[in-house]
């Protein structure tokens, strides 16, 4: 589960507390129905689109999203709402930022994104605000947005495309998908090639895969990064042996005793989980005896940099390679 583009990790702490079996990770769209409560907004949006007049003639754009749905646009999108920071960053990175009319409150990068209309959070975005922006495409993330919100958005009769990048390779596919939707295929292909070249260079510097690592997205409660997540892929790409991978859960709850028993060589904590490292041993005094603490390999990691599966993920990989391989930021 995770959390992706959220304020880092879309606040996995809050989501896990309220949704122990995260609904946004097991979307089932087979029984999509129209909510009666959304009918007024649906009709209002249809009216707005009709009053806007016919769109200029252009080739249709058809894609298959990460829910394996076929989505067709009458032409490349011109008014896009992005409901995940990673999506927003990707659109700006391929030169399609001018097409973005609405973003979430967590879409903080690049700085230009701050000038777009805020449609609320990644959870329960404002349908009224979305309708008022007259979008011709809404982009959502399986890891950052809830299934219920996805169903509400599909009721609006506007194309909705879902992304779900879980690996660095998936990010490349997602960027190319966004390039197709926005009519920026050349820019997307160019960005993907540059990111791939940087990734190859960074991974050439991975000389050891023996470092036992624990990464936490929350300390109260303790929530670690498990297998099947984007963050796990970043860790292993940087040469880490993820101690939480064996749990079989994407973001497992951990006990302080399990941390002590695992005795990680490197301990990584996302920056939105704790303001300063000295707070770790205040919460868990016994951790001071861990190998990671004794060797000075406990680090706060920029949550926005490593938890958003977009173009800056390679910057996150660069940071993790340095921390895990050299013990230096």
Structure description:
The protein is α/β, with parallel strands linked by helices and 329 residues long. It has two domains: 12-199, Rossmann fold; 206-326, Nitrogenase molybdenum iron protein domain (Rossmann fold). It contains 13 helices and twelve strands. The strands form three sheets. Strands 5-4-3-6-7 form a five-stranded parallel beta sheet, sandwiched between helices. Strands 8, 9, 10, 11 and 12 form a five-stranded mixed beta sheet that branches. A two-stranded antiparallel ribbon has the order 1-2. Strand 6 (137-141), helix 5 (147-154) and strand 7 (160-163) form a beta-alpha-beta unit. Helix 6 (168-182) runs antiparallel to helix 7 and helix 7 (185-204) packs parallel to helix 13 (313-326). It is globular and about 65 Å long.
């Amino acid at each position: 589960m995770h959390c992706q583009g959220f304020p880092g990790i879309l606040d996995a702490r809050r989501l896990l507390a309220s949704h122990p079996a995260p609904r946004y990770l097991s979307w089932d769209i087979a029984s999509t129905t129209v909510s009666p409560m959304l009918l007024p907004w649906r009709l209002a949006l249809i009216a707005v689109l009709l009053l806007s007049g016919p769109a200029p003639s252009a080739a249709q754009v058809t894609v298959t999203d990460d829910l394996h749905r076929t989505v067709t646009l009458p032409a490349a999108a011109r008014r896009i709402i992005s409901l995940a920071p990673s999506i927003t960053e990707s659109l700006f990175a391929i030169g399609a930022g001018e097409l973005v009319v609405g973003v979430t409150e967590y879409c903080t990068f690049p700085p230009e994104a701050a000038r777009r209309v805020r449609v609320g959070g990644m959870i329960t975005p404002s349908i009224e605000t979305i309708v008022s922006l007259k979008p011709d495409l809404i982009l959502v993330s399986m890891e950052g947005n809830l299934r219920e919100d996805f169903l509400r958005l599909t009721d609006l009769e506007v194309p909705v495309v879902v992304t779900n990048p879980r690996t660095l390779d998936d990010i490349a596919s997602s960027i190319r998908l966004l390039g197709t939707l926005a009519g920026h295929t050349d820019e997307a292909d160019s960005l993907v090639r540059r990111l791939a070249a940087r990734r190859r260079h960074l991974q050439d510097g991975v000389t050891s895969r023996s470092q036992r690592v624990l990464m936490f997205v929350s300390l109260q409660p303790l929530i670690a990064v498990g297998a099947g997540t984007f963050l796990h892929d970043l860790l292993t790409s940087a040469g880490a042996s993820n101690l939480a991978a064996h749990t079989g859960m994407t973001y497992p709850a951990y006990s302080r005793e399990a941390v002590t028993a695992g005795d990680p060589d490197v301990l990584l904590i996302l920056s939105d989980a704790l303001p300063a490292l000295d707070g770790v041993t205040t919460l868990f005094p016994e951790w001071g005896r861990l190998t990671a603490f004794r060797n000075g390999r406990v680090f706060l990691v920029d949550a926005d940099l490593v938890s958003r599966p977009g173009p800056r993920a390679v910057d996150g990989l660069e940071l993790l390679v340095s921390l895990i391989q050299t013990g230096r930021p």
